[in-house]
């Protein structure tokens, strides 16, 4: 049996298994009600409402405390002797590496193809609202994190749901929190697999095949796809063995570099077409209320915009608290403020830059995708947009795409490991099994279709948000107290006074 026949058999088996699952699961999760000329999935409204409620509840915290968040990242309010594994900047970059990925490149291309340029407006709005949601969940993640004997830390919905509910509602609440925690852990594994792993491999392979393979080249074949997957899987497995310190060490270097490279490239395209910028911005604003994408109508643009923004920034999923919980701090709300910067960086800045680049360059592949929903592409549309100004840049973009994908797979590997350990126990054997499975599944990502992966990832994402956001609503008063405590600490630090806890220490020693 030849190598080609083996790889073709693997390709067929993977597709035959996942594609029917994607179709049926998507129909169930995205139950929709008629609104105007289209339908509104109730699960999308669930995320929008959560962002609105938390923005109101905490008094536009994403605006009022934006500068304070940057001060915390810079280490201005660090304290000696704080429990944790990484500093604020490393925690932010580790979490951002899980959100700033191919959702910003390929996901945005999908959004502006299906929903038209106007989907960008709704993506930005979703990002701004998501900042408040992210603040709430990360504060809870640090508040209820678990510190292990070996110095490592575990956090996320699998910890703050049962612990927070037990603290607020007693034993009955603890049982309900436990149920939510188990369900959330399961969905973290599923979304991590489809969105944080397979989708990243799929789109990075698509860019590599487009740049170097051609339609009939080796990289465009099943054998090329399998080989690409095996190489990425090997690299992922090696880094995962080092844990969060290893991941943070890699992402703290990769994320700023790749984000900077990508943003500079977007600026070059925009500046190269500077005369088209006003029309592109006007098209985004007009399209938000007069959408011309294949979904049709304003609600269609809104739905697509919110779906792709939620996929990209992950606000409300409970994933980011897993990375942020490893931070060195005594004040949980300090890291919550750091976390609200994520959707701003991810969605408001990077996603908007991508959308503007596509709208300004207007490559033929984008026009084709807007006219024909069956031909909607991902990363190749963005790549074509860059090529209109910088013919050589798709090759550079390939490098950026690989870095985006690699860092996201690493971070979601860490998220998945924490969920796996919660469900199956924290042991060397259990962790090794997960890391092997996670790396093995990387290979499948290069074999599946984009539509299948988006359907599976979205289904897991929005189901996860249901379980997590229920907990966020019920535990929001805890977050309010933690915020007030940190703001009091900041006030005393600025006045040159010791922290309240430090003042209480002598009295405690006299008892």
From TrEMBL:
Compartment(s): Cell membrane
Protein name: Alanine:cation symporter family protein
Organism: Streptomyces ureilyticus
Bilayer-spanning residue ranges: 40-60, 179-199, 219-242, 254-274, 396-415, 436-454, 460-479
Family to which this protein belongs: Belongs to the alanine or glycine:cation symporter (AGCS) (TC 2.A.25) family.
Chief subcellular location: membrane
Bilayer topology term: Multi-pass membrane protein
Keyword annotations: Cell membrane, Membrane, Symport, Transmembrane, Transmembrane helix, Transport
Xref: Pfam families: Na_Ala_symp (PF01235)
């Amino acid at each position: 049996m030849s190598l080609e026949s083996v790889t073709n058999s693997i390709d067929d088996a993977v597709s035959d298994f996942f594609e029917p699952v994607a179709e049926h699961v998507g129909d169930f999760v995205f139950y929709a009600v008629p609104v105007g000329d289209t339908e509104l999935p109730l699960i999308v409204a669930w995320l929008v409402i959560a962002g609105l409620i938390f923005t109101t509840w905490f008094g536009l915290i994403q605006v009022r405390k934006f500068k304070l968040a940057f001060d915390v990242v810079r280490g201005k309010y660090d304290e000696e002797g704080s429990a944790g594994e990484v500093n604020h900047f490393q925690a932010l970059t580790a979490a951002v590496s899980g959100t700033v990925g191919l959702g910003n490149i390929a996901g945005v291309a999908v959004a502006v193809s299906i929903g038209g340029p106007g989907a960008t407006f709704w993506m930005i709005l979703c990002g701004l609202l998501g900042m408040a949601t992210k603040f709430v969940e990360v504060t809870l993640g640090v508040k209820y994190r678990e510190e292990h004997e070996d110095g490592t830390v575990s956090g996320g919905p699998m910890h703050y749901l049962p612990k927070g509910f037990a603290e607020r509602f007693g034993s009955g609440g603890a049982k309900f929190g436990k149920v939510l925690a188990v369900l959330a852990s399961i969905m973290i594994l599923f979304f991590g697999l489809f969105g944080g792993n397979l989708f990243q491999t799929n789109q990075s392979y698509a860019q590599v095949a487009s740049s170097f393979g051609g339609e009939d080249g080796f990289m465009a074949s099943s054998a090329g796809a399998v080989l690409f997957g095996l190489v990425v899987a090997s690299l992922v497995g090696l880094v995962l063995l080092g844990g969060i310190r290893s991941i943070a060490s890699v992402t703290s270097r990769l994320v700023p570099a790749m984000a900077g490279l990508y943003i500079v490239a977007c600026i070059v395209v925009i500046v190269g077409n500077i005369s088209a910028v006003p029309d592109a911005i006007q098209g985004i604003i007009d399209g938000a209320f007069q959408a011309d994408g294949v979904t049709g109508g304003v609600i269609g643009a809104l739905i697509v915009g919110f779906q792709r923004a939620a996929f990209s920034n992950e606000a409300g999923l409970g994933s980011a608290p897993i990375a942020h919980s490893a931070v060195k701090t005594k004040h949980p709300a300090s890291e919550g403020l750091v976390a609200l910067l994520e959707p701003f960086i991810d969605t408001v800045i990077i996603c908007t830059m991508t959308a503007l680049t596509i709208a300004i360059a207007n490559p033929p592949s984008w026009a084709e995708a807007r006219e024909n929903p069956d031909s909607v592409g991902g990363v190749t549309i963005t790549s074509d947009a860059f090529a209109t100004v910088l013919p050589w840049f798709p090759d550079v973009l390939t490098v950026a795409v690989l870095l985006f994908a690699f860092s996201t797979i690493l971070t979601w590997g860490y998220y998945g490991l924490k969920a796996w350990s919660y469900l199956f126990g924290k042991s060397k054997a259990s962790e090794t099994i997960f890391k092997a499975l996670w790396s093995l599944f990387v290979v499948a990502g290069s074999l599946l279709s984009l539509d299948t992966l988006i359907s599976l990832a979205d289904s897991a994402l929005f189901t996860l948000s249901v379980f997590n956001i229920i907990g966020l609503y019920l535990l929001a008063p805890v977050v309010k107290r933690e915020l007030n405590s940190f703001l009091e600490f900041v006030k005393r630090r600025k006045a040159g006074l010791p922290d309240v806890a430090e003042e209480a220490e002598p009295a405690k020693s006299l008892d």
